Amino acid sequence: MATEVGRRQGVLVAVGALVCSAVLLYLGTGPAPIPALTWLAPLPLLWLAPRVSARVTLAVAFTAALAGTGNSWAYFLGSDSVPLLMVPVLILCLSLLLMLAVGLFRAMMVRHRPLPAACAAPAVWVGGLYLMSLASPVGVMGTLATTQGDLPVLLQTAAVTGWWGVEFLVLLVPAAVAAVLAPGIATAARLRTGLAAALVLVAALGYGVLRQPDSTEARWRVAAIAQTANKWATESTDPAGAELQRSYVDQIAALPDGVGLVVLPEAVFMVDEANTEALLGPFRQAAEAKGADVAVGALVRSAQGSKYNAVLGVPADGGPPAVYRKWHVGVSPNTLSGDELAQLPGGVGLQNCGDVNFPSPSREYALAGTGLVAVPGDDEDVDGWQHSRTAVLRGVENGMAMAWAATDGRTMISDGWGRVLAEDTTGGKPFAVAIADVPGGVGPTFYSEWGDWFAWLCLAMALAGTAFAVRRTSAPQA
């Protein structure tokens, strides 16, 4: 009877942990996360792991992760940027990855290795996520690090480790708490684990505080403009295209004096390569009149029948446009990708929407000395905040300000320290307009110079931890 009661209690505890983590993951991740809950979401799973069998641990972790991703199912299935066949693969991989992280944590804990266990879980997660990012045609966004996009003190870690370090921290803390609370662990080991995790977190936050700028003297005044009624690639020669062009030109003319850069959304217009100047003519006049460079997103058809997704930078001095071709076009059919940087005369870089899901070209811009990047985007209604914070993270990684204008009607301007200086959504208005005085960039960071070294370190830690667990499992018993 006692055994039956114990079994029932064990089932209830496992189900409780599953439900708690699933709910916390659902609320703490996805397109509209509650950042504080992100830190708590893995804790019930990690707390449960050393108290139940390996089979139960893996099943509960996988199921909780799968349910937690439910906050993004509708977005994935309705997204134009995520291929439909990739949706189940993405969801499955994320669920398996969390399962493996919790599983290795348990393997370390049953061997009474709380500190390695606390490090192993985030190492598996970060290493696996990094490999996924290398294989994915749409890169990576919407991760644990992205949920912390409005906490610039925490984000400074990315200047050294890339956003992988932020990702690691968000999982390290609950893993360390679970390790300290696990049964059968010596007091000294608990203290070492708790102290080590606390020191890492304090060091990261302390670095974030120290890295905040001493001066906020503005170098640029920037405006980002997005219209609610934007559609993908309106034909520039159609009446609708002409009206859209007039609307944006009027918005540029109405900006306050001193604005030196204006950013419009991605692929606002469709234009034949031979007619590019006809499209840009009115923007050129507006740029010269306002004294501001203008970044226009356009899908350009070449004479050969292919197309490329471009940012056309119209300089205020009347010079020829700077043309940036999107580097990462995903699975867009018949769309040519680019591989070159493009800058306006003042040194402002041009980039395009989904390019921020990848380390490049942001790193290349930083190494070229770029302090501000104009990023036209084409977000969907549900992921505007999430994607704009991906741009913020890329900016912190490389010490650059980011000016974001997206067709969902969200505009955002951040500086090289990850502070959102201005943000606007249409909210029923015809246009969202964000204007900010932006300080000079930080300059190339440690991450800019050394790239994804921390992700590789996490892969090495994960492999070492797995090898240790497997060796101990297969070792003969005395």
Unreliable parts: none
Number of domains: 2
Shape: elongated
**Biggest sheet layout:** 9 strands, mixed
The number of E-state strands comes to: 14
Return the average pLDDT rounded to an integer.
Answer: 92
Strand content: 15-25%
Structural class call reads alpha/beta
Alpha-carbon distance between the two ends: 34 Å
Rg over CA atoms: 24 Å
- In helices, the fraction of residues equals 40-55%
The total count of helices amounts to 17
Task: Give a verbal description of the structure.
With 478 residues, the protein is α/β, with parallel strands linked by helices. The protein folds into two domains: 2-212 and 452-474; 218-441, Carbon-nitrogen hydrolase (Nitrilase/N-carbamoyl-D-aminoacid amidohydrolase). 49% of the residues lie in helices and 16% in strands. It is built from 17 helices and 14 strands. The strands form two sheets. Strands 1, 2, 3, 4, 5, 6, 7, 8 and 14 form a nine-stranded mixed sheet that branches. Strands 9-10-11-12-13 form a five-stranded mixed sheet, with helices on one face. A hairpin with a 7-residue loop joins strand 6 and strand 7. Helix 6 (86-109) packs antiparallel against helix 7. It is elongated. The model has no long low-confidence stretch (mean pLDDT 92).
